[in-house]
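Fold this sequence, please.
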Amino acid sequence: MTVQRAELSCVYEERMETVRAEYEEINRRILEMKEEILEAIRESIAIRSVKSDPLPGAPYGEGPKRALEHALELGEKLGFRTGSMADRVGWVEYGDGEEMAAVLGHLDVVPEGDGWTYPPFGGEIHDGKMYGRGVLDDKGPVIGAIYGLKAIRDAGLKLDRRIRVIFGTDEENGSSCVKYYVQNGGELPAIGFTPDADYPLIFCEKGQLGWTVTRSRKHAERSKLIRLEGGTARNVVTPRCVLEVEGTLKVTPGDGISVQEENGRTTVTAAGKGAHGSMPEDGVNAAKKLFAAVADADLEEDLECVARFVREKLGGESRGSSLGIYYRDEETGETTVNLGIVRATPEQISLTLDIRYPKNADKEQMIERVKAAAAEYGLEAKLEGQARLLYLPKDSELVQKLMAVYREETGTDARPLAIGGGTYAKTFENMAAFGPVFPGEQALIHQPNECADIENMIKSYQIAAAAMYAIAVK
């Protein structure tokens, strides 16, 4: 028995020495391509791939289509097989084998918003950091993964599964791109990861409910409301909100509240701080601030109903207690509620909610309670979209392999995480979110001055390439 254990130990050590040598070779090749990788990322960042009105051959608008073309052209230039589906999703592929391992990312971005120190689409480097919308979420990691394929190929490593880097162009607005891929016969991976969250690995992603809450404007032609607008996306904390009305308005002074009276009109502007909708506590919601500032104002009925709903059901907290939907799970966290976009049109006043829930939540009960809470104020809550809760066993092949790569590459004894953010991992079975943000690293995703430390960027691409190799070997 002792001899058998010794023999197994020797075999394990020999295999680990081989693995370490393979990872070191991958790391070396990624480092050699550093400047080329950064330039390709800069080119992608320069494309404002925010969703816009569809055009012929561009279902999500010109920007996402150009970003898709750029990634496909890069794959072709590097000598890989490429493909795309309906100008919505593309891929770069290397290797042979019946099964396919995948890296899944996206090339669309949220709007840039205000408050940037450096150009949001410049890809400029300052103090060792690259700035630009998408450098972390998710253009940088996608480009890094394509170069990871090159490192694996050039190192001559043997694969049992093909590796496909898949990139969609509508992740920030519901992931219809990859849903289209699945529904229209796109090949499904046997195993994979998405570099669209945090290290060391995400074994659980909360479930998501996306809402639009509306109040019809019954007498808009006689309304004094001229303008109400705030927010950039449902999954971003409202960074700025503006209310403009005819006549005067009673406004309670406060930090970030400014009032302008001119030409018989009053304009109230609230300045907040954007943050990812899965972590509303990291931001300051400008819409909540604005409605609090006009709590004593004489608002017309439709606007007052919306304002009261925000103040009483959303304003004081972001965990859903006021809506009656708070859940807490020891392993997977708490409910979060984000107020994202506020708008007024001649027909209606609307706001959006991004709600995320842990493993122990009762989803159907949550849906009913949100609808009922809105109805108390004469509002209609409509569920616009949802994403399933993702949970991966910690002893699965995928979790074990990715965690082994991370520990080997970083020398840490890390443990997998549960998060509120939703990623593409929910699109496929047997897929996890893996990187690119390291523990303790500031991640300005969806915020002004989105940036990434150059050294961390390159290290994350080395880890991703090693992980691609690991999951492509049975």
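The longest strand covers residues 207-216. The radius of gyration is 24 Å.
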